[in-house]
Amino acid sequence: MAWATIARRELLAYFRTPFGWTLLTVFLLVQGYSFFLFVELMAQPLAPHGTPLRLFLGGTLLYWLFLIMVVALTTMRLLAEERRSGTLETLLTAPVRPIAIVLGKYLAAVLFYVALWLPTAVYVLLAAWLAERGTLDWGSVAAGYLGTLSVGATALAVGVLCSALTAQPLIAALLCAASLALWVLLGPLRFFVSDGPLATLLERLDVLAQLDDFARGLVDSRHLLLHGSVIVFCLTAAVGHLGLRRRP
Amino acid sequence: MTTTQSTTPPALLEVCELSKRLAGRQVLDRLSFGVAAGQAVGLLGPNGAGKTTCMRVICGYLSPSAGRVCVGGRDVVQEGLAARRLIGYLPESAPLHGELRVVEHLAYRARLRGLHGRAARTEVERVVERCGLGAVARRVIGQLSRGYRQRVGLAEALLGAPPLLVLDEPTAGLDPNQLREVRELIRSLAGTQAVLLSSHVLGEVEALCRELVVLDHGVVVAKGPLEALSAGGGVALWVTIRGPLAEIRPRLEGLPGVAVSEAIELPLEPGVVRCRLSGANDAAARERVAGTVFAAGWGLQELRVERAALESVFSQLTRERE
């Protein structure tokens, strides 16, 4: 299966270069520090309602800034670098379908994203150990991580599409970051429009609210469906763009 | 267009009336040629003639605007995957994954060609040995010289022993030693695999191919066996005669079908004249020249036939369209 071969190579490439390890280290340091801050904050008498995990899994601007940065950096070279270096030509002239190329690369990016988040489970276990028995809602924790995976997978699909559109990894990263920032800022726009279909649409697209639902332990299938649709659209567009040269 | 007859078996690669427009420009215009199994064909043309575009269409990277390309009877557009299985392609700059080791890169590409496990390992070992990469097999590609990188690209094209190899300027940028090694490698493939090789360097094509397709401004201007194309450029006759220049020139010019393009008295040998005659393409004309020299009582020191080099044929063919 060509997609599995491509995914394996891309995943190894993340860990064969200083880039992957640097990103992993910085990610864990910042996430560890922010988790510590949230625990400290929520321990204050005048702390807002909620749990540190709710803040940690999407409740702050820091989460979004970091998500955008990580996704843009993770996906920028996937196809743009292949195009820039010329290896895309040998890949597309090999007996491999464009869909296998895009799926393989996307899968590798998702697995690397999972590898980034996986060690943060230690923070949760630490919080569970420190908290009073029975106060940690494991359902909310699982839903929060599902939300992070769902939003991350959607953002990575946007990144793969941006990487397919250009031969410059830096431009792909900027395009991806701008698209994701637009997505994040789309929800709050609903406060500036009067009630109506547009307001409803913006509400449905509000990724901040979606992730807050997940962090509260609420798994809404509409959110998953929306994310799935965006993933399918972006990957299909990326496949279509790769196949463009083959059209007369 | 110059077309010379060649006795070739049915084509493994068939290019029929192939046209390609890119960015509003007609890059290829109704190209037709074929490559038989085991045959080495050179795609020759000046820079910008459309060689790379032609190869990209053959390998399925670009689609034709019109016409048809078949490899082993499979249409590269309709049955792209099946057709691409029959092709090993080396693009001009031999693009490789610089961060991988040679064997890792080749194993990755072997898996993409559907080889797995022991079959992939055996195939990688075969192409590493075939391309003389044993000494650098564990080295990171980014640290290799241009010559070795080119060989890795060639090894990649050989994976799975595809019946057709498409090599775009395979020796571009190599030093003389690397060039000789890569040429020997390509020459060793002829007979077992068909090779379509592009180059703008005539010596390259002359050294590696017996059949030629000459491309200029996206059009096939000549095709056929190398010897036949060279012969099409005509012959020149060099005659060195002991005798007076003032008499020799008019006597030779008086011969039917013969023109004296050059006649000089050799500076170091007074009384000896060297002439370059054109038009004396057949043996009868040459006999008339020799007869005239003997009849006049001059001394015939040399009579040499010089066939036109492929270079002059190439210049003539490509200049005609400018």
Protein topology:
The complex is a heterodimer of chains A (248) and B (322).
Chain A: H1 2-16, H2 18-42, H3 52-59, H4 61-75, H5 80-85, H6 87-92, H7 98-117, H8 121-130, H9 138-165, H10 169-186, H11 197-205, H12 207-215, H13 221-242
Helix pairs in contact in A: 1-2, 1-7, 2-3, 2-4, 3-4, 3-9, 3-12, 4-7, 4-9, 4-10, 7-9, 7-13, 9-10, 9-12, 9-13
Chain B: E1 2-3, E2 11-22, E3 25-36, E4 40-44, H1 51-58, E5 66-71, E6 74-75, H2 80-85, E7 87-90, H3 102-112, H4 117-130, H5 146-158, E8 164-168, H6 176-189, E9 194-199, H7 202-208, E10 211-216, E11 219-225, H8 226-231, E12 235-242, H9 245-253, E13 259-265, E14 272-278, H10 283-295, E15 299-307, H11 310-320
Parallel strand pairs in B: 1-11, 4-9, 4-10, 7-8, 8-9
Antiparallel strand pairs in B: 2-3, 2-5, 5-6, 10-11, 12-14, 12-15, 13-14
Helix pairs in contact in B: 3-4, 4-5
Describe the structure concisely.
Chain A is an all-alpha fold and 248 residues long. Chain A has helices spanning 2-16, 18-42, 52-59, 61-75, 80-85, 87-92, 98-117, 121-130, 138-165, 169-186, 197-205, 207-215, 221-242.
